[in-house]
Design goal:
By secondary structure, the protein is α+β, with helices and mostly antiparallel strands. Helix content is 42%, strand content 20%. The chain has one domain (23-101): Ribosomal protein L7/L12, C-terminal domain/Adaptor protein ClpS (Ribosomal Protein L30, Chain: A, 2-Layer Sandwich). Bound molecules: L-tyrosinamide (TYC).
């Protein structure tokens, strides 16, 4: 009976790296009308910040015009920016959060 010779397939040494999803910043924009305490309350509720963290982010946006709040995948960033902006609108304030893709 003839012998079948099988050459073993060499083990693949390089693996395809699973791509990391792109990240998006949520940015808080300053305005002249939304009360500081309201901005802090929204940051605590939507972004789960402590009062101290929220105070720091609010003051940075107030002084510099904008502040990065946090970084998430696109869906999470857009959802949180929308929820936070809606809270302002529901209360009659022009409070605005935007999202921006990280480079
Ligand atoms: N500038 C607002 C005021 O003086 C407070 C404020 C801070 C509003 C940060 C928005 O993103 C903001 N009442």
């Amino acid at each position: 009976m003839p012998q079948t010779v099988t050459t073993p397939t060499p083990e693949t040494k390089t693996r395809a790296k699973p791509e990391k999803p792109p990240l998006y910043k949520v940015i808080l924009l300053n305005d002249d009308f939304t009360p500081r305490e309201f901005v802090i309350a929204v940051l605590m509720a939507v972004f789960r910040m402590t009062e101290g963290e929220a105070l720091g982010v609010m003051l940075t946006a107030h002084r510099r015009g904008a502040c990065v709040v946090a970084v998430y995948t696109r869906e999470v960033a857009e959802e949180k920016a929308r929820r936070a902006t809606d809270k302002g609108r529901e209360a009659g304030y022009p409070l605005a959060f935007t999202t921006e893709k990280e480079v």
